[in-house]
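Bump. Still looking for 7TM GPCR serpentine receptor class x (Srx) domain-containing protein structure tokens.
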Amino acid sequence: MFTAVAVGLHFNRAKSTVEHTVGAIIANSLAVCMNKINQKVNEKYFYESDRITYSLSERFQITENIKSAKMFDKIVWSIGFFNIIVNACLILDNYDIPTTFKNLASVSCDFSILLYGLIVPVVYYNQTDSWKKRVAVMLKGCFKPRVSPLKSTFGQDMASHGAKEETTKYFEMLADQWK
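Sorry for the wait, here they are.
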């Protein structure tokens, strides 16, 4: 929170936002590079497991690291792609260019932010199994049919209480009808 507030205040007071946007592009590039390095190191460990004996927990951790890196790679690329477009549009605002290009950059920035908000959650959803399960549970709860309890003609509750109670109730009703 402190970092976000500090950067936000500095961004709004600065005469030029080029440093901020270049910093964001560099941070995105570093995230992609570090994730690739992490993935390659874990893949190296995985392929060395033929020659080196790893415990079951270490092999599990290595495969989980590789899966996480592959998942994170797609997410980082989608986030980074939109961040580069948005930051490039923001950089254009700092230069003396015709108003038409500034307006085009503004529309491109707004459109990229809209697509970012729509596409990144979809990419995250497609890459994360736990999120898929959570959303499925939420949707199942939303679309569960609402069934009201069974009532007799006179409004008495006829809810099922088990086979024995139902049998007793059936024969009592049958006996009442025979009288």
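Residues 149-178 form one domain.

Edit: fixed formatting.
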